[in-house]
Amino acid sequence: MTEQKKDYILDALGELEDDFVAEAASYTKQKTEWKYWRELGVAVACVAAILVTVKTVEYLPIGRPTESMVTSEKTNLDSSNEQEAFKEEIIPEGTMVQDAVYSEGISWELVASEMENPKDTNDKAQGQMIDSTENISNKSNVLESVQSPSLSVRLSAEEILDQGYDIFKGVVTGLQVYRVTGKINQYFTVATIEVTDSIRGAQQNGDICEIYLPVAKVDDMVMVNSVSGDLDKLEVGSNAIFMPRTATETTGLGKKDLGEWLCYADFADYYFSEAIRYLFLETESGVSYEKNVYEIPDENITLDDVAEYLRKMLEN
Amino acid sequence: MEDQKIIELFFARSELAIQALAAKYEKLLYKISFHILQDSEDVEECLNDTYLGVWNAIPPARPNPLSAFVCKVTRNLSLKKYRAKTAAKRDTSLEVSLEELAPCIPTLSAEEEWSAQELGRSINVFLHTLDAENRVLFVRRYWFMDAVSDIARDMKMSENLVSVRLRRIRNQLKKYLEQEGYRV
Questions:
Q1: CA of A105, closest CA in chain B: separation in Å?
Q2: Is the dihedral of CA A58, A59, A62, A67 positive or negative?
Q3: A128-147 pLDDT, tens per residue?
Q4: Architecture of domain A3-315
Protein backbone atom coordinates (compact mmCIF):
# COMPACT_ATOMS: atom_id res chain seq x y z
CA MET A 1 0.00 0.00 0.00
CA THR A 2 1.36 3.40 -0.92
CA GLU A 3 1.93 6.11 1.67
CA GLN A 4 -0.55 8.20 -0.31
CA LYS A 5 -3.31 5.64 0.04
CA LYS A 6 -2.46 5.17 3.70
CA ASP A 7 -2.84 8.89 4.28
CA TYR A 8 -6.04 8.89 2.26
CA ILE A 9 -7.59 6.20 4.48
CA LEU A 10 -6.35 7.84 7.67
CA ASP A 11 -7.73 11.19 6.59
CA ALA A 12 -11.07 9.66 5.67
CA LEU A 13 -11.28 7.89 9.01
CA GLY A 14 -10.37 11.16 10.67
CA GLU A 15 -13.73 12.47 9.49
CA LEU A 16 -15.64 9.99 11.64
CA GLU A 17 -18.38 11.59 13.68
CA ASP A 18 -17.55 12.41 17.27
CA ASP A 19 -20.49 10.36 18.47
CA PHE A 20 -19.10 7.21 16.90
CA VAL A 21 -15.74 7.75 18.56
CA ALA A 22 -17.33 8.47 21.93
CA GLU A 23 -19.64 5.48 21.55
CA ALA A 24 -16.72 3.15 20.85
CA ALA A 25 -14.63 4.63 23.65
CA SER A 26 -17.29 4.01 26.25
CA TYR A 27 -19.06 0.95 24.88
CA THR A 28 -19.64 -1.92 27.24
CA LYS A 29 -21.61 -4.95 26.29
CA GLN A 30 -24.58 -5.24 28.57
CA LYS A 31 -27.41 -7.60 29.02
CA THR A 32 -30.63 -6.34 30.36
CA GLU A 33 -32.03 -8.08 33.41
CA TRP A 34 -35.03 -9.42 31.55
CA LYS A 35 -32.75 -11.11 29.08
CA TYR A 36 -31.00 -12.92 31.94
CA TRP A 37 -34.30 -14.10 33.32
CA ARG A 38 -35.51 -15.13 29.92
CA GLU A 39 -32.34 -17.09 29.20
CA LEU A 40 -32.43 -18.61 32.66
CA GLY A 41 -36.04 -19.67 32.13
CA VAL A 42 -35.25 -21.26 28.80
CA ALA A 43 -32.18 -22.97 30.26
CA VAL A 44 -34.15 -24.37 33.19
CA ALA A 45 -36.85 -25.62 30.85
CA CYS A 46 -34.28 -27.26 28.61
CA VAL A 47 -32.47 -28.90 31.52
CA ALA A 48 -35.75 -30.24 32.84
CA ALA A 49 -36.64 -31.66 29.46
CA ILE A 50 -33.24 -33.24 29.13
CA LEU A 51 -33.33 -34.80 32.59
CA VAL A 52 -36.68 -36.38 31.94
CA THR A 53 -35.85 -37.83 28.57
CA VAL A 54 -32.22 -38.72 28.87
CA LYS A 55 -30.72 -40.83 31.61
CA THR A 56 -27.87 -42.50 29.87
CA VAL A 57 -26.30 -39.68 27.96
CA GLU A 58 -24.28 -37.18 29.93
CA TYR A 59 -23.78 -34.64 27.23
CA LEU A 60 -26.44 -33.41 24.86
CA PRO A 61 -27.82 -32.63 22.36
CA ILE A 62 -26.03 -35.29 20.36
CA GLY A 63 -23.32 -37.71 21.15
CA ARG A 64 -21.28 -40.27 19.46
CA PRO A 65 -23.80 -43.00 18.85
CA THR A 66 -23.84 -45.63 21.53
CA GLU A 67 -25.77 -48.87 21.52
CA SER A 68 -28.46 -47.37 23.64
CA MET A 69 -28.87 -44.52 21.26
CA VAL A 70 -29.01 -46.45 18.06
CA THR A 71 -32.17 -47.92 16.71
CA SER A 72 -30.71 -50.88 14.92
CA GLU A 73 -33.66 -51.32 12.59
CA LYS A 74 -32.99 -47.92 11.12
CA THR A 75 -29.45 -48.62 10.13
CA ASN A 76 -27.69 -51.28 8.17
CA LEU A 77 -24.47 -50.71 10.02
CA ASP A 78 -23.45 -53.48 12.34
CA SER A 79 -21.13 -52.78 15.23
CA SER A 80 -17.98 -53.62 13.29
CA ASN A 81 -19.00 -51.24 10.55
CA GLU A 82 -19.62 -48.59 13.14
CA GLN A 83 -16.13 -49.07 14.54
CA GLU A 84 -14.80 -48.94 11.02
CA ALA A 85 -16.51 -45.64 10.51
CA PHE A 86 -14.72 -44.05 13.42
CA LYS A 87 -11.39 -45.81 13.68
CA GLU A 88 -9.45 -43.66 11.24
CA GLU A 89 -9.82 -40.63 13.43
CA ILE A 90 -6.66 -39.87 15.34
CA ILE A 91 -7.19 -37.02 17.68
CA PRO A 92 -4.78 -35.51 20.16
CA GLU A 93 -6.52 -35.77 23.47
CA GLY A 94 -6.77 -32.94 25.91
CA THR A 95 -5.66 -30.14 23.68
CA MET A 96 -7.51 -26.90 23.64
CA VAL A 97 -9.74 -25.78 20.87
CA GLN A 98 -7.61 -23.81 18.47
CA ASP A 99 -8.47 -20.13 18.53
CA ALA A 100 -11.16 -20.82 21.07
CA VAL A 101 -11.77 -18.18 23.65
CA TYR A 102 -14.47 -19.65 25.82
CA SER A 103 -14.18 -23.38 25.31
CA GLU A 104 -12.07 -25.36 27.71
CA GLY A 105 -10.28 -28.68 27.74
CA ILE A 106 -11.48 -30.03 24.43
CA SER A 107 -9.91 -30.88 21.14
CA TRP A 108 -11.67 -30.79 17.86
CA GLU A 109 -11.22 -31.51 14.24
CA LEU A 110 -12.99 -30.76 11.01
CA VAL A 111 -14.30 -34.04 9.72
CA ALA A 112 -15.96 -32.98 6.51
CA SER A 113 -16.65 -29.82 4.62
CA GLU A 114 -18.84 -28.83 1.76
CA MET A 115 -18.79 -25.19 0.77
CA GLU A 116 -20.43 -23.48 -2.15
CA ASN A 117 -17.69 -20.89 -2.05
CA PRO A 118 -14.46 -22.13 -0.46
CA LYS A 119 -13.60 -18.55 0.52
CA ASP A 120 -16.50 -18.61 2.93
CA THR A 121 -14.93 -21.38 4.94
CA ASN A 122 -15.37 -20.86 8.64
CA ASP A 123 -12.19 -19.45 10.16
CA LYS A 124 -12.17 -22.39 12.54
CA ALA A 125 -11.52 -24.83 9.73
CA GLN A 126 -7.83 -24.97 10.39
CA GLY A 127 -7.85 -28.11 12.44
CA GLN A 128 -6.85 -31.53 11.40
CA MET A 129 -8.99 -32.35 8.42
CA ILE A 130 -9.20 -36.08 7.97
CA ASP A 131 -11.65 -36.26 5.18
CA SER A 132 -13.33 -34.07 2.66
CA THR A 133 -16.48 -33.40 0.76
CA GLU A 134 -17.12 -36.98 -0.27
CA ASN A 135 -17.91 -37.84 3.32
CA ILE A 136 -21.12 -35.94 3.26
CA SER A 137 -23.60 -38.20 1.61
CA ASN A 138 -27.20 -37.75 0.80
CA LYS A 139 -27.77 -41.47 1.00
CA SER A 140 -27.35 -41.58 4.72
CA ASN A 141 -28.43 -44.12 7.20
CA VAL A 142 -30.03 -42.70 10.24
CA LEU A 143 -28.71 -43.21 13.71
CA GLU A 144 -31.07 -41.65 16.10
CA SER A 145 -31.43 -41.60 19.81
CA VAL A 146 -34.21 -43.40 21.62
CA GLN A 147 -35.33 -40.18 23.18
CA SER A 148 -38.93 -39.32 22.70
CA PRO A 149 -39.60 -35.80 21.50
CA SER A 150 -38.80 -33.66 24.48
CA LEU A 151 -40.86 -30.64 23.63
CA SER A 152 -42.31 -30.68 27.08
CA VAL A 153 -42.21 -26.93 27.15
CA ARG A 154 -45.43 -26.20 25.32
CA LEU A 155 -45.22 -22.81 23.73
CA SER A 156 -47.60 -21.13 21.38
CA ALA A 157 -46.41 -19.42 18.21
CA GLU A 158 -46.74 -16.06 19.97
CA GLU A 159 -44.66 -17.24 22.91
CA ILE A 160 -41.98 -18.60 20.60
CA LEU A 161 -41.77 -15.33 18.73
CA ASP A 162 -41.72 -13.44 22.02
CA GLN A 163 -38.46 -15.18 22.83
CA GLY A 164 -36.89 -12.57 20.61
CA TYR A 165 -34.57 -14.74 18.55
CA ASP A 166 -33.32 -13.41 15.23
CA ILE A 167 -35.41 -14.62 12.30
CA PHE A 168 -34.17 -14.72 8.76
CA LYS A 169 -34.65 -16.53 5.51
CA GLY A 170 -31.46 -17.80 3.96
CA VAL A 171 -29.74 -20.27 1.73
CA VAL A 172 -27.23 -22.79 3.04
CA THR A 173 -23.90 -22.13 1.34
CA GLY A 174 -21.76 -24.45 3.41
CA LEU A 175 -21.77 -27.31 5.86
CA GLN A 176 -18.82 -28.24 7.97
CA VAL A 177 -18.85 -31.23 10.26
CA TYR A 178 -16.72 -31.21 13.37
CA ARG A 179 -15.92 -33.77 15.98
CA VAL A 180 -15.07 -32.88 19.54
CA THR A 181 -13.38 -35.45 21.72
CA GLY A 182 -13.20 -35.92 25.46
CA LYS A 183 -16.27 -36.48 27.57
CA ILE A 184 -18.08 -34.23 25.15
CA ASN A 185 -17.84 -36.83 22.47
CA GLN A 186 -19.83 -34.95 19.91
CA TYR A 187 -20.25 -34.44 16.27
CA PHE A 188 -21.83 -31.25 15.16
CA THR A 189 -22.19 -29.17 12.03
CA VAL A 190 -21.61 -25.52 11.35
CA ALA A 191 -23.89 -24.29 8.59
CA THR A 192 -22.97 -21.18 6.67
CA ILE A 193 -26.04 -19.22 5.69
CA GLU A 194 -26.41 -16.36 3.26
CA VAL A 195 -29.26 -14.24 4.50
CA THR A 196 -31.78 -13.44 1.76
CA ASP A 197 -34.56 -11.94 3.85
CA SER A 198 -34.03 -10.62 7.34
CA ILE A 199 -37.31 -10.77 9.23
CA ARG A 200 -36.07 -9.75 12.65
CA GLY A 201 -32.71 -9.15 14.25
CA ALA A 202 -29.20 -8.05 13.44
CA GLN A 203 -28.78 -9.86 10.15
CA GLN A 204 -29.18 -7.94 6.94
CA ASN A 205 -29.91 -9.22 3.47
CA GLY A 206 -26.66 -10.44 1.96
CA ASP A 207 -25.03 -11.11 5.31
CA ILE A 208 -23.25 -14.36 5.90
CA CYS A 209 -23.67 -16.03 9.26
CA GLU A 210 -22.91 -19.37 10.83
CA ILE A 211 -25.19 -21.61 12.84
CA TYR A 212 -24.21 -24.48 15.11
CA LEU A 213 -26.39 -27.50 14.31
CA PRO A 214 -26.65 -30.41 16.75
CA VAL A 215 -26.63 -32.91 13.90
CA ALA A 216 -23.97 -34.40 11.68
CA LYS A 217 -23.63 -36.53 8.60
CA VAL A 218 -20.47 -38.57 8.49
CA ASP A 219 -19.64 -41.59 6.38
CA ASP A 220 -23.21 -42.34 5.33
CA MET A 221 -24.47 -41.92 8.84
CA VAL A 222 -26.70 -39.21 10.15
CA MET A 223 -26.46 -38.38 13.82
CA VAL A 224 -29.47 -36.59 15.12
CA ASN A 225 -31.53 -36.42 18.23
CA SER A 226 -35.23 -36.23 18.65
CA VAL A 227 -35.42 -32.45 18.81
CA SER A 228 -33.28 -31.76 15.77
CA GLY A 229 -36.30 -31.43 13.54
CA ASP A 230 -35.28 -31.09 9.92
CA LEU A 231 -31.75 -29.96 10.61
CA ASP A 232 -30.33 -33.19 9.22
CA LYS A 233 -32.09 -32.47 5.94
CA LEU A 234 -30.24 -29.20 5.40
CA GLU A 235 -27.95 -29.38 2.42
CA VAL A 236 -25.85 -26.87 0.55
CA GLY A 237 -28.40 -24.98 -1.51
CA SER A 238 -31.30 -25.53 0.92
CA ASN A 239 -33.61 -22.61 1.52
CA ALA A 240 -35.15 -22.15 4.94
CA ILE A 241 -36.32 -19.70 7.52
CA PHE A 242 -34.18 -19.91 10.61
CA MET A 243 -35.00 -18.82 14.14
CA PRO A 244 -31.74 -19.69 15.88
CA ARG A 245 -30.49 -18.56 19.26
CA THR A 246 -27.55 -16.23 19.53
CA ALA A 247 -24.34 -17.97 20.59
CA THR A 248 -22.67 -16.33 23.54
CA GLU A 249 -19.87 -17.22 25.92
CA THR A 250 -22.42 -18.87 28.19
CA THR A 251 -24.01 -21.18 25.64
CA GLY A 252 -22.46 -24.54 24.92
CA LEU A 253 -22.08 -28.15 25.87
CA GLY A 254 -20.33 -29.85 28.74
CA LYS A 255 -19.42 -28.70 32.20
CA LYS A 256 -17.12 -25.84 32.92
CA ASP A 257 -16.40 -27.05 36.44
CA LEU A 258 -15.19 -30.37 35.05
CA GLY A 259 -12.92 -28.49 32.69
CA GLU A 260 -14.69 -29.53 29.50
CA TRP A 261 -16.74 -26.90 27.82
CA LEU A 262 -17.62 -26.54 24.17
CA CYS A 263 -18.76 -23.01 23.60
CA TYR A 264 -20.93 -22.50 20.55
CA ALA A 265 -19.67 -18.94 20.14
CA ASP A 266 -16.23 -20.28 19.30
CA PHE A 267 -17.66 -21.81 16.17
CA ALA A 268 -20.75 -19.92 15.12
CA ASP A 269 -22.89 -16.84 15.56
CA TYR A 270 -26.02 -18.82 16.37
CA TYR A 271 -27.06 -22.25 17.52
CA PHE A 272 -30.05 -24.55 17.54
CA SER A 273 -30.75 -26.67 20.55
CA GLU A 274 -34.15 -27.59 19.22
CA ALA A 275 -35.21 -27.00 15.68
CA ILE A 276 -38.65 -28.54 15.32
CA ARG A 277 -40.35 -25.26 16.10
CA TYR A 278 -37.56 -22.95 14.98
CA LEU A 279 -36.99 -23.99 11.39
CA PHE A 280 -39.11 -23.75 8.25
CA LEU A 281 -37.45 -25.81 5.55
CA GLU A 282 -38.30 -25.72 1.87
CA THR A 283 -38.57 -29.28 0.58
CA GLU A 284 -39.75 -30.88 -2.64
CA SER A 285 -43.11 -31.52 -1.03
CA GLY A 286 -43.55 -28.00 0.30
CA VAL A 287 -42.46 -26.21 3.42
CA SER A 288 -41.73 -28.46 6.39
CA TYR A 289 -42.52 -26.93 9.76
CA GLU A 290 -44.28 -27.64 13.06
CA LYS A 291 -47.92 -27.48 12.09
CA ASN A 292 -49.08 -28.05 15.66
CA VAL A 293 -47.64 -24.69 16.62
CA TYR A 294 -47.98 -22.43 13.63
CA GLU A 295 -51.41 -22.06 12.10
CA ILE A 296 -50.53 -20.94 8.61
CA PRO A 297 -53.65 -21.03 6.46
CA ASP A 298 -52.71 -22.63 3.15
CA GLU A 299 -51.43 -26.05 2.38
CA ASN A 300 -49.32 -25.01 -0.56
CA ILE A 301 -47.38 -22.33 1.20
CA THR A 302 -43.96 -21.13 0.21
CA LEU A 303 -41.21 -19.74 2.40
CA ASP A 304 -42.30 -16.27 1.34
CA ASP A 305 -45.77 -17.03 2.71
CA VAL A 306 -44.18 -18.12 5.96
CA ALA A 307 -42.13 -14.93 6.06
CA GLU A 308 -45.28 -12.90 5.57
CA TYR A 309 -47.07 -14.87 8.28
CA LEU A 310 -44.21 -14.31 10.72
CA ARG A 311 -44.07 -10.60 9.92
CA LYS A 312 -47.77 -10.26 10.60
CA MET A 313 -47.38 -12.14 13.88
CA LEU A 314 -44.55 -9.82 14.85
CA GLU A 315 -46.61 -6.75 14.03
CA ASN A 316 -49.37 -7.85 16.38
CA MET B 1 -15.22 13.57 37.33
CA GLU B 2 -17.93 14.43 34.82
CA ASP B 3 -16.84 15.87 31.49
CA GLN B 4 -18.82 19.03 32.11
CA LYS B 5 -16.90 19.72 35.31
CA ILE B 6 -13.59 19.13 33.57
CA ILE B 7 -14.57 21.63 30.90
CA GLU B 8 -15.52 24.15 33.58
CA LEU B 9 -12.03 23.74 35.06
CA PHE B 10 -10.54 24.51 31.66
CA PHE B 11 -12.72 27.58 31.40
CA ALA B 12 -11.55 28.64 34.86
CA ARG B 13 -7.96 28.13 33.60
CA SER B 14 -7.31 25.82 36.52
CA GLU B 15 -4.35 23.46 36.21
CA LEU B 16 -6.52 20.87 37.87
CA ALA B 17 -8.25 20.61 34.51
CA ILE B 18 -5.24 18.82 33.00
CA GLN B 19 -5.00 16.51 36.00
CA ALA B 20 -8.68 15.68 35.81
CA LEU B 21 -8.49 15.11 32.07
CA ALA B 22 -5.46 12.86 32.44
CA ALA B 23 -7.02 10.93 35.31
CA LYS B 24 -10.07 10.16 33.23
CA TYR B 25 -8.69 9.65 29.74
CA GLU B 26 -4.96 9.02 29.85
CA LYS B 27 -5.27 5.25 29.60
CA LEU B 28 -7.47 5.51 26.53
CA LEU B 29 -5.32 8.20 24.92
CA TYR B 30 -2.16 6.24 25.60
CA LYS B 31 -3.65 3.25 23.84
CA ILE B 32 -4.65 5.26 20.77
CA SER B 33 -1.24 6.84 20.49
CA PHE B 34 0.69 3.65 21.17
CA HIS B 35 -1.18 1.78 18.44
CA ILE B 36 0.15 4.34 15.99
CA LEU B 37 3.60 5.12 17.34
CA GLN B 38 4.63 1.94 19.20
CA ASP B 39 7.10 3.94 21.24
CA SER B 40 6.52 4.92 24.85
CA GLU B 41 8.61 8.07 24.69
CA ASP B 42 6.85 9.29 21.57
CA VAL B 43 3.52 8.49 23.16
CA GLU B 44 4.35 10.44 26.33
CA GLU B 45 5.36 13.37 24.20
CA CYS B 46 2.19 13.09 22.20
CA LEU B 47 0.03 13.01 25.31
CA ASN B 48 1.70 16.13 26.65
CA ASP B 49 1.02 17.80 23.31
CA THR B 50 -2.58 16.62 23.56
CA TYR B 51 -3.05 18.24 26.97
CA LEU B 52 -1.45 21.42 25.71
CA GLY B 53 -3.67 21.36 22.63
CA VAL B 54 -6.79 20.87 24.69
CA TRP B 55 -5.67 23.63 27.08
CA ASN B 56 -5.35 25.99 24.11
CA ALA B 57 -8.62 24.91 22.53
CA ILE B 58 -10.84 25.14 25.62
CA PRO B 59 -12.00 27.89 25.85
CA PRO B 60 -13.40 28.96 23.47
CA ALA B 61 -14.33 25.41 22.39
CA ARG B 62 -16.80 23.53 24.55
CA PRO B 63 -16.58 20.06 23.01
CA ASN B 64 -19.36 17.60 23.47
CA PRO B 65 -18.58 14.77 23.82
CA LEU B 66 -15.23 15.60 25.39
CA SER B 67 -14.00 12.03 25.00
CA ALA B 68 -14.24 12.15 21.21
CA PHE B 69 -12.54 15.52 21.13
CA VAL B 70 -9.48 14.47 23.12
CA CYS B 71 -9.29 11.15 21.29
CA LYS B 72 -9.24 12.98 17.97
CA VAL B 73 -6.57 15.41 19.15
CA THR B 74 -4.40 12.51 20.30
CA ARG B 75 -4.94 10.57 17.10
CA ASN B 76 -4.13 13.56 14.90
CA LEU B 77 -0.99 14.41 16.84
CA SER B 78 0.13 10.78 16.81
CA LEU B 79 -0.41 10.53 13.07
CA LYS B 80 1.47 13.77 12.55
CA LYS B 81 4.41 12.39 14.48
CA TYR B 82 4.12 9.07 12.68
CA ARG B 83 4.23 10.77 9.30
CA ALA B 84 7.15 12.93 10.35
CA LYS B 85 9.28 9.89 10.97
CA THR B 86 11.31 9.15 7.90
CA ALA B 87 11.35 5.37 8.18
CA ALA B 88 7.86 4.00 8.00
CA LYS B 89 7.30 1.46 10.69
CA ARG B 90 6.00 -1.93 9.80
CA ASP B 91 3.75 -4.22 11.76
CA THR B 92 2.36 -1.50 13.97
CA SER B 93 -1.31 -1.79 14.83
CA LEU B 94 -1.87 1.05 12.41
CA GLU B 95 -0.22 -0.80 9.54
CA VAL B 96 -2.06 -4.01 10.26
CA SER B 97 -5.49 -2.43 10.48
CA LEU B 98 -4.87 -0.29 7.38
CA GLU B 99 -3.81 -3.30 5.35
CA GLU B 100 -7.02 -4.99 6.40
CA LEU B 101 -9.22 -2.07 5.42
CA ALA B 102 -7.43 -1.00 2.23
CA PRO B 103 -9.18 -3.46 -0.14
CA CYS B 104 -12.55 -1.86 0.68
CA ILE B 105 -11.33 1.66 0.06
CA PRO B 106 -11.52 3.25 -3.40
CA THR B 107 -8.46 3.42 -5.58
CA LEU B 108 -6.97 6.82 -5.57
CA SER B 109 -5.98 9.02 -8.46
CA ALA B 110 -4.43 12.46 -8.31
CA GLU B 111 -7.73 14.04 -9.25
CA GLU B 112 -9.49 12.26 -6.45
CA GLU B 113 -7.13 13.33 -3.72
CA TRP B 114 -9.56 15.93 -2.52
CA SER B 115 -12.14 13.29 -1.79
CA ALA B 116 -10.85 11.92 1.52
CA GLN B 117 -13.33 14.16 3.29
CA GLU B 118 -16.08 12.96 0.98
CA LEU B 119 -15.12 9.36 1.61
CA GLY B 120 -15.15 10.06 5.35
CA ARG B 121 -18.69 11.36 5.05
CA SER B 122 -19.72 8.25 3.12
CA ILE B 123 -18.21 6.05 5.80
CA ASN B 124 -20.19 8.00 8.39
CA VAL B 125 -23.40 7.36 6.48
CA PHE B 126 -22.50 3.69 6.21
CA LEU B 127 -21.81 3.48 9.94
CA HIS B 128 -25.28 4.84 10.64
CA THR B 129 -26.71 1.77 8.91
CA LEU B 130 -24.94 -0.61 11.30
CA ASP B 131 -26.20 -1.60 14.70
CA ALA B 132 -24.28 -0.23 17.66
CA GLU B 133 -22.27 -3.36 18.27
CA ASN B 134 -21.00 -3.67 14.70
CA ARG B 135 -20.31 0.05 14.58
CA VAL B 136 -18.22 -0.17 17.72
CA LEU B 137 -16.34 -3.14 16.29
CA PHE B 138 -15.49 -1.12 13.18
CA VAL B 139 -14.49 2.04 15.00
CA ARG B 140 -12.40 0.20 17.57
CA ARG B 141 -10.55 -1.73 14.91
CA TYR B 142 -10.01 0.96 12.29
CA TRP B 143 -10.12 4.22 14.19
CA PHE B 144 -8.68 3.20 17.57
CA MET B 145 -6.65 0.46 15.84
CA ASP B 146 -7.31 -1.93 18.68
CA ALA B 147 -6.11 -5.49 18.32
CA VAL B 148 -8.76 -8.10 17.58
CA SER B 149 -7.86 -9.89 20.81
CA ASP B 150 -8.45 -6.72 22.85
CA ILE B 151 -11.78 -6.07 21.15
CA ALA B 152 -12.84 -9.67 21.72
CA ARG B 153 -11.97 -9.46 25.40
CA ASP B 154 -13.72 -6.15 25.96
CA MET B 155 -16.81 -7.05 23.98
CA LYS B 156 -17.05 -10.57 25.39
CA MET B 157 -16.81 -12.25 22.01
CA SER B 158 -14.52 -14.85 20.58
CA GLU B 159 -11.65 -13.55 18.46
CA ASN B 160 -13.06 -15.60 15.64
CA LEU B 161 -16.41 -13.94 15.94
CA VAL B 162 -14.80 -10.49 15.93
CA SER B 163 -12.77 -11.36 12.85
CA VAL B 164 -15.76 -12.80 11.06
CA ARG B 165 -17.91 -9.79 11.87
CA LEU B 166 -15.22 -7.35 10.79
CA ARG B 167 -14.86 -9.23 7.54
CA ARG B 168 -18.60 -8.93 6.95
CA ILE B 169 -18.60 -5.24 7.81
CA ARG B 170 -15.73 -4.63 5.40
CA ASN B 171 -17.62 -6.49 2.68
CA GLN B 172 -20.72 -4.43 3.41
CA LEU B 173 -18.66 -1.24 3.31
CA LYS B 174 -17.14 -2.22 0.00
CA LYS B 175 -20.57 -2.96 -1.45
CA TYR B 176 -21.92 0.31 -0.08
CA LEU B 177 -19.08 2.38 -1.50
CA GLU B 178 -19.49 0.73 -4.89
CA GLN B 179 -23.19 1.58 -4.83
CA GLU B 180 -22.20 5.15 -4.05
CA GLY B 181 -20.14 5.25 -7.22
CA TYR B 182 -16.67 4.73 -5.81
CA ARG B 183 -14.30 2.55 -7.79
CA VAL B 184 -13.19 -0.03 -5.21
A1: 16
A2: negative
A3: 322 322 233 332 333 322 23
A4: Beta Barrel (2.40)
